[in-house]
Amino acid sequence: MAKPVSKHPDWRPENAGPEFAVRIVSAGAAAANPARAPRPPRRRPLVPEDYAGGVLRGDRSLLAQTITLVESDATARIAEAQGVLARLLPHTGRSVRLGITGVPGAGKSSLIEVFGTWLCRQGKKVAVLAVDPSSSVSRGSILGDKTRMEQLAREANAFIRPSPSGGALGGVARKTRETILVCEAAGYEVILVETVGVGQSEIAVRSMVDFLLLLTITGGGDDLQGMKRGSLELADAVCVTKADGLNVTPAEVTRRMLQDSLHYLAPPTPGWAARALACSARTGEGVPGLWTAVEEFLQITRANGALLERRRRQNLAWAQSMIEDALRERFFREPRVAARRPAWERAILEGSMPVTAAVRELLALGGE
């Protein structure tokens, strides 16, 4: 038997009109069919002011969303991201930017976790930008560095952001520079940029950090190998990792060999003599010495103006890189180039046209 209307919780004598009956029927229909229940109002889309305000307040959720926005390649999102960066730019530039690279197996993630945790416990706010290699086949990335850095991820003053390299050269993501600025505006004092790995031609990280730390291991070659140029001459410090247990003595031998090699190379930073160190992520031995070296570096380069000049040069390199990317995209979007490109690529694959002739033909189309 249906309950009398007077028993309904919203019933009042003055509500006993037809409007009240409609409300009862609507409520009953919604209860009987939840799919027809009224949906909550949608949240309004975020605008640049929302992103910038959240970052400046230290809202970690909006910080992550802002980085996602900045990393987007969608045309509409790029314009929106530039609006956010314009609002954040006055609040940037006060952090220490450290690039950490090294040979595969050197323990980059392990050392970053220990080093970052130590910095947090010294009262520093630390952001880790961990770049994960993208597959050349599937274009996907594992993005597992945050899971790997469990201890650091639990620190209240730490923020870890894994990003795919997206096939970018240099072992860093294409939008790493913008991400550094966003983290600086959020108040992070130390930005650690972990690269995919290092080879002698992978130098992009040098163009976006203040201090470059190269990690290596024992058994990497003889004295001549240690003197080979490339990444070694770009590093402000070289650290031999896994210097623990039975590996302490071999690590010290390697450290001395590297120090001798650095003596013959021109220093990458005016006024600063690159040095070789040794440390262990397992025991923590030598980790505080890394920060001591960074502090000494900052003291010298701030005094002689080298740090300011480096950042100015980096901004110029950033502008040139953006122009090159924009020109490349615009070139391949040009209708005549886009129409000719399939036949051009097929001719190169089949060997029916010399590569140089094919390139000249396509450039002529794009330049008309």
Notes on the structure:
There is one protein chain. With 368 residues, the chain is an alpha/beta fold. The protein has 14 helices and seven strands. 49% of the residues lie in helices and 11% in strands. Mean pLDDT is 82; it is low at 3-9, 18-26, 134-144, 166-171 and 222-228. α9 (223-227) links the parallel β5 (211-216) and β6 (237-240).
Number of domains: 3
Architecture (CATH level 2) name of the largest domain:
3-Layer(aba) Sandwich
CATH superfamily of the largest domain: P-loop containing nucleotide triphosphate hydrolases
Main pleated sheet:
7 strands, parallel
The DSSP helix count reads 14
Q: What best-fitting shape do the alpha-carbon axes yield?
A: globular
Distance from N terminus to C terminus (CA atoms, Å) equals: 84 Å
Rounded to an integer in angstroms, the radius of gyration calculated over CA atoms is 28 Å
- As a percent range, the share of strand residues is 5-15%
Q: Quote the average pLDDT.
A: 82
| CATH class identity of the largest domain | Alpha Beta
Low-confidence stretches: 3-9, 18-26, 134-144, 166-171, 222-228
- Count of individual beta strands: 7
Fraction of residues in helices? 40-55%
Q: Which strand order do you get reading across the main beta sheet?
A: 3-2-4-1-5-6-7
CATH topology call of the largest domain: Rossmann fold
